[in-house]
Specification:
Helices cover 36% and strands 20% of the residues. The chain is an alpha/beta fold. It has 2 domains: 2-82 and 198-252, D-Maltodextrin-Binding Protein, domain 2, CATH 3.40.190.10; 90-196, Periplasmic binding protein-like II (D-Maltodextrin-Binding Protein, domain 2, 3-Layer(aba) Sandwich), CATH 3.40.190. α4 (122-132) links the parallel β6 (113-116) and β7. It is globular.
Length: 267
Amino acid sequence: MIASLPMYDWPEVRPATDALWQVIARHLAANGFRGVPESLDRSGDPHAQWRSAELLLSQTCGYPLTHGLAGAVDLVATPCYRVRGAEGSDYCSLIVIAATSGRTGLADLRGSIAAFNTEDSMSGMLALKAVVAPLARQGRFFSRVIRSGAHLASMQAVADGRADVAAIDCVSHALAERHLPGLAKKLKVIAETPKVPGLPLITARGRSGPERTRLARALAEAFVDPGLAAVRDALFIAGLEFRPLAAYQRIPDLEAAADAAGYTSLA
C-alpha cells in the first residue's frame, strides 16, 4: 500500500509530517488495516500515487479532485488549519505582491505579470483567475503569466521582481511566515480569494463501505490524539471534517463563473 502527504511537506516541517503519519498508521492498524506503510512514500510522482489502486491515503488539491482525479479516488476527509484565510475546513489563497509595490488593489494589477504554481492548482491558478475574471477585458487581464512549479517559487518570483503578483495557498503563506520570514517580509497581502473546501485526504477508489468507515474512524482518532499537540501546532492543524464530495462543487463553479465572464485562461 502507498501512503503520502505531499501537499505541505516542506523540509522545515518534514519531521512533524512523519510524526503525523506514525500516529495515523498506529490508528489504522488499531482499526484493522494490515500492511500499513511504516513511512511516507516521497519517492514517487504524487499524480501517479493518487491514481494507484494501492493508495491507502494521500492528500491532493481540490482542483485535481474535481477534475483529473474525478471518479478515480474517494474523498475521505478534509483537514482544518489554524491560519489566516482558513475557516473550518475551508481555505482561500492570499493575493501577494512585493512589499515595496505601490499597488493597493486588484484593479491596479491590470497589465502586470502573474506567477502561478501549476495548471491544476486551485489555490495558485484558479483562485487567481477567479478574482480577476470580473476585471478582464476581451478575456485578458495580465500582460504575461509565468509557471513557477510551486507556491514557494511563486513567492520568490514576486519577491525577486520577476513577477508582480501571485495567489498563495494560505497554509503555504503561514509556513513561509514561520520558517522563511525574510521572504515573507518582502511580500504583502492585498486581497483574499473566495473560500473553498481545503486540500482533501483521499484513498483509492473501490474500497468497501466498511473499509472506508474504518479509515475515517482511524483518521478521526489520530487527529485528536493527545500525543500530537506539538505536531498539530507545527503543521497548523486545527482538526478534521468529513464533508460530502458535493461540497467541492464550489471549485468547478468558480471556474465556470470565470469562463462565463470570458476569462477562460490565466492571461
